[in-house]
């Protein structure tokens, strides 16, 4: 697990979409191709059945099947299975992921309720102790973990290797990073995490999650390389001309963070079907705007040489 923890400390965690066919059922063939396409770019990890993979709408059988397909097609890329809902369902999902050969799980906050810290810790402990594989806990929304809770969990759960932060509170992030030291990897996991990538790199948080990698892996990889190389010119150009316009579309309607991924795949020739209710697909005007952004992306990659200007 030390090797996985070290790997998770730097790089991009990719979140594949879950393709559905016209009847709304899991499209296994499309998912196999999707995983193979992403694995070619060697992300830090692949996270099937995550937020972009619509974990919240999958049955237990579908969650387990997406993990099996991802493990079979990921090659040397570690697979971290999305796990969540109530504690009994989360345990069942985690154990199915372990049986399928996943390297670890990404544990989402429990369904609906806003627990006290001791209740949230008990939820995480119950799931972590049910498996022998690595656990990455997702801190956001109704499941925001305090630094003290994380440190206690690190002592009680040896297989806890990382925290994915979905809040972006830098005071808490810096405190957690300093307190956890090498014991835990801290991952920037806010929506469109690239937006605060440079700030996170400045405090030593060098890994993040990327929905963009799911449909534009070349652009996502180029942006990470620019961050790593201290190439301010490329970072600022990609932010201004791609990521910030993308965020403006994402913020227009609830659930668009997921819908954008499905639309992006469709627009790049990798149709993953529609999102499942209660989410809604992009409105036609919003999809047209996304199409223009994607068309511009190829040019941005060509126009953004790596290592041009170092960040000081």
Explain what you see:
The protein is α/β, with parallel strands linked by helices and 312 residues long. The chain has a domain at 2-214: Aldolase class I (TIM Barrel, Alpha-Beta Barrel). Helix content is 48%, strand content 12%. Strands 3-4-5-6-7 form a five-stranded parallel β-sheet. A three-stranded parallel β-sheet has the order 2-1-8. Helix 7 links the parallel strand 6 and strand 7. Helix 4 (87-100) runs parallel beside helix 5 (117-128).
What's the architecture of the domain at 2-214 in CATH terms? Alpha-Beta Barrel
Q: Ends: how far apart?
A: 35 Å
CATH class of the domain at 2-214: Alpha Beta
Q: How many whole angstroms does the radius of gyration measure?
A: 18 Å
- Measured by DSSP, the beta-strand proportion falls in 5-15%
CATH topology of the domain at 2-214: TIM Barrel
Count of DSSP-assigned helices:
12
> Mind summarizing the main beta sheet?
5 strands, parallel
Q: Segments where pLDDT lies below 50 for 5+ residues?
A: 306-312
Q: Total number of β-strand segments?
A: 8
What is the chain-wise order of helices and strands?
HEHEHEHEHEHEHEHEHHHH
- Label the overall shape: globular
Strand order of the largest sheet: 3-4-5-6-7
As an assembly, this protein is single chain
Mean pLDDT, to the nearest integer, reads 94
């Amino acid at each position: 697990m030390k090797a996985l923890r070290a790997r998770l400390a730097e790089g991009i965690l990719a979140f594949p979409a879950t393709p559905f066919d016209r009847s709304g059922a899991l499209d296994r063939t499309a998912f196999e191709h999707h995983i193979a396409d992403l694995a070619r770019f060697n992300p830090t990890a692949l996270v099937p059945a995550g937020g972009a993979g619509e974990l919240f709408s999958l049955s237990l059988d579908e969650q387990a099947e997406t993990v099996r397909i991802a493990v079979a097609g990921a090659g040397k890329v570690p697979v971290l299975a999305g796990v969540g809902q109530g504690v009994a369902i989360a345990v069942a999902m985690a154990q199915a992921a372990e049986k399928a050969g996943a390297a670890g799980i990404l544990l989402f906050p429990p369904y609906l309720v806003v627990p006290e810290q001791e209740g949230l810790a008990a939820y995480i402990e119950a799931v972590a102790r049910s498996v022998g594989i690595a656990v990455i806990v997702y801190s956001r929304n109704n499941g925001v973990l305090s630094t003290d809770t994380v440190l206690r969990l690190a002592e009680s759960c040896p297989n806890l290797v990382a925290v994915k932060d979905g809040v972006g509170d830098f005071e808490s992030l810096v405190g957690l990073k300093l307190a956890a030291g090498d014991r835990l990897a801290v991952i920037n996991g806010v929506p469109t995490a690239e937006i605060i990538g440079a700030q996170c790199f400045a405090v030593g948080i060098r890994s993040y999650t990327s929905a963009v990698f799911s449909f534009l892996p070349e652009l996502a990889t180029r942006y990470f390389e620019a961050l790593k190389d201290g190439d301010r010119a490329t970072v600022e150009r990609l932010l201004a001309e791609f990521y910030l316009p993308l965020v403006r579309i994402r913020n227009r309607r609830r659930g668009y963070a997921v819908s954008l991924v499905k639309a992006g795949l469709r627009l790049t020739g990798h149709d993953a079907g529609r999102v499942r209710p209660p989410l809604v697909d992009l409105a036609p005007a919003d999809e047209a705007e996304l199409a223009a952004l994607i068309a511009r992306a190829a040019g941005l990659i060509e126009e953004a040489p790596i290592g041009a200007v170092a960040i000081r």
